[in-house]
Queue: 2 jobs
Job 1
Amino acid sequence: MGLGQLTVELIVGFFSLLLITRVLGKTQITQLTAFDFISALILGELLGNAIYDDDTGVVKILFAVTIWGLLIFGIQLVGQKSITLRNFLEGKPALVIQKGVIDRQALKKNRMNLNELQNLLRIKDVFSVREVEYAILEPNGSLTVIRKPEFDTPTLKDLNIPLNRKSLPMLLVSDGIILNDNLLTISKNESWLKTKLKKQGFDNVNNIFFAEWREEDGLYVLEKDQ
């Protein structure tokens, strides 16, 4: 296989995987179920073998990636409409601690031991099972924990402290570039932004590394290193 052909196949493979990833959704690594992980692994293996096989051309690479991508997409589509299939492919959440008591049968069914349970609890900043009222083992292997009331962090409502609503921070300038879509989100325009920047002594947007707006705090600006 010549370098030219290898380069073309790598480029085609890269953009094919990128397209498939965009089509199949934005599931994060921490949200992957066992089925998602195996599907992605096989897709990468198919592409890798196809690229370095002298008898495999660009058409076959596209064909393999497309067929596998369509299979995954089809399974996801059917899974959205069928709870039975979804539970079969992804699994169901399991209640491993109920009313402060560890369910040994649930642990055994999910092939989990006490050390693994304690590790997942520590990830949630829980260092004693006695603090837990309920714990749910999610299909992706993470643990959702509800603490007992006496160990739970008090809220402002519990402490009778007046609530101050917070707005969503919005990035308006990134590395000298004005983000117009974000300006539209907060119903502002470039003229308004430049006026705000000038009030803080910034005359040139190109010199700004980071500018963030929050309703209750105003504009926060970081200048580029000179």
Note: The domain at 94-151 is CATH 3.30.240.20 (CRO Repressor).
Job 2
Amino acid sequence: MKKIITILSLLLVTQFLVAQDKQNLQKGNILYKKQEYDKATEEYKKAEEKKKTPQTSYNLGNALYKSKKIDEAEKAYDNSLEEADNNLKAKAYYNKGVALQQQKKLPECIEAYKNALRINPDDAEARQNLQKALQQQEQQQQKQEQKQQQQQQQEPKPQKSKLTPKQVEQYLQSIREKEKQVQQRVAKQRVSTPRQPEKDW
């Protein structure tokens, strides 16, 4: 009899927690519709603390995105992908792609849109956003290539000598002669100046 009462008590507690979870989720949805995204975020987080579901994580991601907390939204979308059905996965990948595109993380964004289209090939918005992201990536690459070309053009290039080999040889010979003259003068000065005594008495 005690076992039955214990089991019934556990079932009641579990149902109470599930009901509270749904209540927080519903409150979050109402607040989201009222565009009170920060409050909706709080309710979704409370619901996740009680029971983490793909739908709760997805809704949390949407509220965080609307609250301009893009990094957190991206993580929430990742969490929603874990056990979601294909419909929710496609939406989560799409929204993750939007968040990544806003952060200029184009390779990851492109991959998210591709994943959304693998699940739902008829998603016209995902296809359009994928095309935009690919164009942005191409423009980014072109800008980088232009910068590299400009930097290469700005680097000084070694100039070819305008002297002929004969002129170079004559120039070197004149430098050698001047060097000899300087050495001879230094040698004469050494001879003409008396040495200082080593000891000072």
Note: The mean pLDDT is 83.
